[in-house]
TrEMBL record:
Protein's name according to its UniProt entry: Undecaprenyl-diphosphatase
Catalytic reaction annotation: di-trans,octa-cis-undecaprenyl diphosphate + H2O = di-trans,octa-cis-undecaprenyl phosphate + phosphate + H(+)
TM region positions: 7-30, 45-63, 83-102, 108-129, 179-203, 223-244, 256-275
Gene: uppP
UniProtKB keywords: Antibiotic resistance, Cell membrane, Cell shape, Cell wall biogenesis/degradation, Hydrolase, Membrane, Peptidoglycan synthesis, Transmembrane, Transmembrane helix
Function recorded in the entry: Catalyzes the dephosphorylation of undecaprenyl diphosphate (UPP). Confers resistance to bacitracin.
Topology versus the membrane: Multi-pass membrane protein
Top-level enzyme category: hydrolase
Extra remark beyond the main annotation: Bacitracin is thought to be involved in the inhibition of peptidoglycan synthesis by sequestering undecaprenyl diphosphate, thereby reducing the pool of lipid carrier available.
GO-annotated cellular components: plasma membrane
MF terms in GO: undecaprenyl-diphosphatase activity
Record-listed E.C. numbers: 3.6.1.27
């Protein structure tokens, strides 16, 4: 039962952090180190599976919008065509960089020390870029509808998304910062980040799952996979709506401060050899 208990903890961490600008991968690495759930083929497979659970939550929550854009696309309407082309354009940079650098990233960046660096750098960038955005957030040039995002703006968001390949930076934080730089409102940047996560994470997860030998999975591990998928899905379902509501009232700086505090705690744990 211990493996199932640990699996539930990691799934809750994934569901909470996947769409917040605090890095789900970074949290799973750090928490995994603390509870000794890292470093095995199963733990790597498990993390990929529960990420799919979290993505399913976005599909469910935004299904009406996704369905409308699919219908609009096949009707050759401008808003549907632009929406899906923007998703493709924003996906290209990370897809190219991911295919080129995936092995190097896995080998050298998936450890507690590099995650801590990502937490610190990402937190500082969040504060700096948000402060600059706040000076012009009421400008008429700021995009306030998903349908109004240009291809150039989508590409800028895609370039920023590449920062998320450094564990601890956060895909959500990177794309939201890219949205600010590109001239999107916080809400539009966040929602675009959600939609962009669907093809990016499904594609990346598919590539990762192809590497694993499912025939070697034990019965307890199969139960852990199923429970983890459901827990990650339900947790993300609760978090996403509340995150959007939070952003309409509070600045992103709150998450930046959290990142820096977490980094400080884990620097102490590394110094004390509690984690490596």
């Amino acid at each position: 039962m211990l493996i199932i208990f640990k699996a539930i903890i990691i799934a809750i961490v994934e569901g909470i952090t996947e769409f917040l600008p605090i890095s789900s991968t970074g949290h799973m690495i750090l928490v995994g180190d603390l509870i000794k759930f890292n470093g095995s083929d199963f733990s790597e497979m498990y993390e990929v599976v529960i990420q799919l659970g979290a993505i399913l939550a976005v599909v469910v929550l935004y299904w009406s919008k996704i369905r409308d854009m699919i219908v609009s696309f096949f009707k050759f309407e401008k808003k549907g065509i632009r929406f899906w082309l923007n998703i493709i354009v924003a996906t290209i940079p990370a897809m190219i960089m991911g295919l080129a650098l995936n092995k190097i990233i896995k080998q050298y960046l998936f450890n507690s020390k590099t995650v801590i660096i990502g937490f610190v750098v990402g937190g500082i960038l969040l504060i700096v870029i948000e402060n600059n955005f706040r000076k012009r957030e009421n400008s008429e040039t700021v995009v306030r509808k998903l349908e109004d995002i240009s291809y150039g703006q989508a590409f800028k968001v895609g370039l920023f998304q590449c920062l998320a390949m450094w564990p601890g930076m956060s895909r959500s934080a990177s794309t939201i910062m890219g949205g600010w730089v590109a001239g999107l409102s916080t809400t539009v940047a966040t929602e675009f980040s959600f939609f962009l996560a669907i093809p990016v994470m499904i594609g990346a997860s598919g590539l990762e799952l192809k590497k694993f030998d499912f025939s070697s999975v034990t019965s307890n591990e199969k139960i852990a996979l199923g429970v983890g998928f459901v827990v990650a899905f339900l947790t993300a379902l609760l978090v996403v709506d509340r995150f959007i509501a939070f952003l309409k009232k509070k600045p992103m700086r709150t998450f930046a401060i959290y990142r820096l505090l977490v980094a400080a705690i884990f620097i102490i744990l590394v110094a004390l050899n509690v984690i490596k």
